[in-house]
């Protein structure tokens, strides 16, 4: 059971196919699998469908795959702050399936948990409900949403051991655990691979059963909106 | 722009919205004026949720202490507090959808007299996405909208029926604007409070929605 690979290109070897569905972790630019995204760009694989809450910015994260037109369709909840994304969508070059953020997270979690569909009240009475089964429970309407099972998951964590047990850091956890769970294969990139046994088993956020391949950084970890307060305001 | 608006300014609207919050509440604040509400909670023990996976959101960091792993739902760098907890997005929306969050305070493009809310897209013009707004309005205990009463063209945003794609149907409980406070009640909206210097006639003149007594 060798999970550790020396770089992103090697870790993705044999996993990429034109037209595949990829689930990616990250929120904004926080906790995005930046090394694996760059390697997917370099591979030239195309006609991808990518399930990810956001699409990065024009020159970082998933925005890189939009620039090269490798993405056919995005499944996302929010695409503001990305001019190229907006341009491709409004011109009809890129398909976009809007999912409410919680619905997208639960679709990934459910897909990974063997649950093909679930009912939610999110989106009832909106365009999100169009074409979806409506069911009434206890007098309230819910719509049917499908679990997502991805061909490949790409995620970013803080630390891992060589068996793929993952620890995330602060709000960089976000979509990474559900995205990891929903992939038939999951490749994780981390900032540090630590020796087996050095992570307290009670502190593991995602068990290694969900992680098939693993690489270690370095990461750029770009900040999208730097907001601060002055010290004298404290 | 704020100078041309009648009644409360952005900070006064935020301060009024903060009065809606009670000790012990877990609350989600949206982007824009709702973010300012955090400045006016005073001594009340309020825990702020950030839907990207955090309870106990702290203020912006000092310069030089920004952390790319610590952002809010508006992607701004923030800080943690002694009470903070982190969790993944599926868990975050489980607590939202599951009704554990007492209230959400959020902005709007349009609100209707039946509580319909539109705040995520303008067809063919502005497509940003709903983010977590549809989940929030469907799941939290109380939905409070804070917004200017009229748009930049001077047209009312408080309508009989929304014209834009909805974020939620019949979800809004209370509307706080620069002109005052309105509740969604059977048959229309009820005036709860007028902003300083605003008359009932002025509020009615700026409102398309049915106002009931």
Point out poorly predicted stretches of chain B: none
Mean pLDDT of chain A: 96
**Which structural category do the helix and sheet elements of chain A fall into?**
alpha/beta
By DSSP, the count of extended strands of chain A is 11
The largest β sheet of chain B comes out as:
10 strands, mixed
- What fold name goes in the CATH topology slot of chain A? Glutaconate Coenzyme A-transferase
The span between the termini of chain A is 51 Å
CATH class of chain A: Alpha Beta
* Shape verdict of chain A: globular
Count every helix of chain B, treating DSSP H or I runs of 4 or more residues as helices. 5
Strand order, sheet with most strands of chain B: 4-3-2-1-5-10-12-13-14-15
The DSSP helix count of chain A reads: 6
Into which percent range does the helicity of residues of chain B fall? 10-25%
Radius of gyration of chain B: 17 Å
The CATH superfamily of chain A appears as: Glutaconate Coenzyme A-transferase
Q: Sketch the topology of chain B as an H/E string, one letter per element.
A: HEHEEEHEEEEEHEEEEEHE
Note down, in words, how this protein is organized.
- Chain A is α/β, with parallel strands linked by helices and 234 residues long.
- Chain A has a single domain (8-117, 147-216), classed as Glutaconate Coenzyme A-transferase.
- Chain A has helices at residues 8-11, 34-43, 63-67, 83-90, 101-112, 176-181, and strands spanning 21-24, 48-51, 71-76, 95-98, 117-120, 134-137, 140-146, 152-161, 166-167, 186-194, 213-216.
- In chain A, strands 1, 2, 3, 4, 8, 9, 10 and 11 form an 8-stranded mixed sheet that branches.
- Chain B is of the alpha/beta class and 213 residues long.
- Chain B is 16% helix and 27% strand.
- Chain B has helices at residues 10-18, 33-36, 89-97, 133-139, 200-205; strands spanning 26-29, 47-50, 54-57, 80-86, 103-106, 110-112, 117-118, 121-122, 126-127, 142-146, 158-159, 174-176, 180-185, 188-194, 211-212.
- In chain B, the strands form 3 sheets. Chain B has a 10-stranded mixed sheet with strand order 4-3-2-1-5-10-12-13-14-15. Chain B has a 3-stranded mixed sheet with strand order 7-6-11, with no helix packed on it. A two-stranded antiparallel sheet of chain B has the order 8-9.
- In chain B, a hairpin with a 4-residue loop joins strand 6 (110-112) and strand 7 (117-118).
- In chain B, helix 3 (89-97) packs parallel to helix 4.
- The mean pLDDT of chain B is 95.
- Chains A and B meet through helix 4, helix 5 and helix 6 of A and helix 3 and helix 4 of B.
